[in-house]
Amino acid sequence: MRVFGLLGDKRVAKSLSPRMHNAVLARHGLDGVYVPIAVEPTRVEQAVASFKTLGLAGVNVTVPHKEAVAPLLDSLSAQARALGAVNTIVFRGVEMVGYNTDVEGFGEALAQAGFSPRGRRALVFGAGGAARAVVMSLRGLGAAEVTVVSRTLERTRRLALDLGARAEKLEQAPALSGAMDLVVNTTPVSSRAESPEMADLALGLKLGGGCRLLVDINYGRGRTFWEEAARGQGVPFMNGLAMLAHQARLSFKLWTGVDATAQEFVSALESVS
Q1: Does the annotation mark 66 as catalytic?
Q2: Residue 137 CB contacts under 8 Å (≥ 6 apart), including other chains
Q3: pLDDT tens figures, 65-80
Q4: Burial of residue 33, with CB atoms counted within 10 A of its CB: 0-12 exposed, 13-18 middle, 19 or more buried
Q5: Which residues 6+ apart lie within 8 Å of 57 measured at CB?
Q6: Distances (CA, A) of 89 to 73, 98, 99, 202, 228
Q7: Tell me: the pLDDT tens digits for 220-272?
Q8: C-alpha span between 62 and 99 (Å, rounded)
Q9: Which of the residues 14, 66, 169, 206 is marked catalytic?
Q10: Which of 16, 70, 78, 268 registers the highest number of CB atoms within 10 A of its CB?
C-alpha cells in the first residue's frame, strides 16, 4: 500500500484533503491511503528528512510550512522555485522534488466561477505561501494590477518585488477596495473569533464600486465575515473548496499518473459548505 500525506500543523486534523484523496484513490482502484501529518514549525526539518525513510509516496504541504519546506528538498520545479513555496512533494527515485499546484488550481477555480482576471485589478490579503501562489496565478492570467496587503509590510514588499505586484499597508485596504474587480483572502483568518480587527476591516471594504468576486481560500467554516462582506454588498462569493479540489487533482496526477477529473474531488466534498 502506498501512503500519501498532508504536512501541516495541528490544523490538518480539520483538513478535507484526506477525504478527497482517499475517495479518488478508491474510485480508481489504487492501493493507497492519504493521512494528515501534524508537525509544529520547529520540527519541520526533521519531519521532511524522515519522509524517504518512511517510504511515503507523495506529500501535500499546507500552512504554515509551504515556504519552510522549499529549501529542504532536493530540487524544485521552476514555478515552486520562483514562488519559494511548495504545496506538493513528489518522490523521484532518491530525490524529493517540490511543486506548487496552488497556482494552476486557483486559476481553474476562478474559471469555474466564471471570472477572468485579464485586465482586472485584484486585492490580495496575506503574504505567505498561498498569497504568493495566488499573485503568480493572477499575474500569469493577465491581471492589470495586483495589490497585496498584510500585517507585515516588509514581507508584503518582498512578495510584491518578487512577483510584480504592488505592496500597501493593511489598513489601506478599505480605501483601495473600491477600485478592485477581485478581492482574495489568503490569510488563515475568516472568523471574528480568530481576529476581531480583521473582521472589522473586511466588513469595512467598499465592494459596491465594481467588485465582481470575493474569494476566501479557507473553507468548511460556515458563513464567515468575508462572505458577510460580499453578500452584504451584492458581490458574488466563493470559498476555498473549488481551489482545494483543483490543486488536489493536479497533485494526484503528479503522484499517480492518473488524470482524475476535478469533479471527482468535488464530489467528495458535496456535503461540506
Answers
A1: yes
A2: 102, 103, 104, 106, 107, 110
A3: 999 999 999 999 999 9
A4: middle
A5: 2, 3, 4, 32, 91, 255
A6: 8, 5, 6, 34, 36
A7: 888 899 999 999 999 999 999 999 999 999 999 999 999 999 999 989 877 55
A8: 13
A9: 66
A10: 268
Run of H or E including 90:
strand 88-92
Cell of 242: 473549488
If we measure between CA atoms, which residue out of 175, 148, 143, 178 comes closest to residue 161?
148
Q: What is the mean pLDDT of the segment spanning 20-36?
A: 97
Question: Which position has the grid cell 503574504?
Answer: 127
What is the pLDDT at residue 35?
Answer: 98
The span from the CA of 199 to the CA of 193, in Å, is 9
Residue-wise DSSP of 164-198: T-EEEEGGGHHHHHTT-SEEEE-SS--STTT-HHH
Q: Please choose, from the candidates 226, 239, 102, 107, the residue with its C-alpha nearest in 3D space to the C-alpha of residue 173.
A: 226
pLDDT higher than threshold 90 for residue 118:
yes
Q: What is the DSSP letter of 64?
A: T
Spatial separation of the C-alpha atoms in residues 127 and 252, rounded to whole Å: 26
Residue 84: DSSP 8-state: T
At 194, list the grid cell.
Answer: 480568530
| Cell 458563513 -> residue | 223
For the entire predicted model, the pTM comes to 0.91
